[in-house]
Give the backbone structure.
Amino acid sequence: MWEPACWRSAGVALDDSLPLSFRTAMPANHFNTHCPDWATALFNGFSQIFLQRNPLCGLLCLLAILFTAPALLGGALLGGVAGLLTAQRRGYAKADRQAGLFSYNGVLLGLLLSLYFPWSALLPPLIIAAGGLSAMFTQQWLKRVRVSHYLPAYTAPFVGLGWLLLCFATPSTNAHLIEINTLNMLAAPLKGLGQVMFLGHPLAGAMIAVGLLIADRRAFCWALLASVAGMGWSMLHHDFYTALIGLGGYNAVLAALALSSQRQKPWLPLAGIASALLLTPMFATIGLPTLTAPFILSCWLIRAGNRVLRQTAVDSAPCAIERQTKGGA
């Protein structure tokens, strides 16, 4: 998994059972030395949406919203700050706050609410409440992950609260025709990156791609591959609209990012991409908004299966040793 250079040089080992977004060590870089703690924590919250901890990556994600969907920026900032202040007020670990672990679900909820609800006097308090609740849910989940080896939360607080809040939203009918041409097909993988944050503009995807490239070149490659795979999968099923606006691949992007850090197991992100693409239609079938639920479920299934296989190998090892001992005797 992601292991900061400053920890590697100090000889500190990290638990590979934890996902990228649960790592709290800070990679040393020039940007951090000139960035206040509160800004670093907030920018890290934006980058944690893509399972990275890099404030420059987070800044590029924030600028992607500003340049391509400025109407959503206020909600994103409000949700992220609400999560961060809730964590600070309740005395959650500073290392986790600085890592952005209490902000990224709030950012996503702020984006979701700003997109589906008209701005009114009630919307800011709703975003603040949602961001604060997401931080509290994340803290409880973190405790269980670290003590009882629970499966990681990923964006589960965002999905759970999002499903609840969308019950009161007016369904969107903004679908529009999009021409199938070379330019749109080249732009679609970038849109797939942007759709993780509800951004359907290729410029947003390009800025996010640059942020991932800065944070982790391996993550950038897997994210782009997953987005292309999502586009290809949608086109294979003749869903050209979904393919060309990037909605076919964003869950695969997140699954690939979450599972790509173990270099010795390249099959993990490939399995994540495949399972996210296979699971996505299931949520539409049962009438639930997709959000990032296929990503979460695919990662949980793969991690749980990996744990079972590992435990089976551990349990069978003593028996094999015993048989070899008897054979030698």
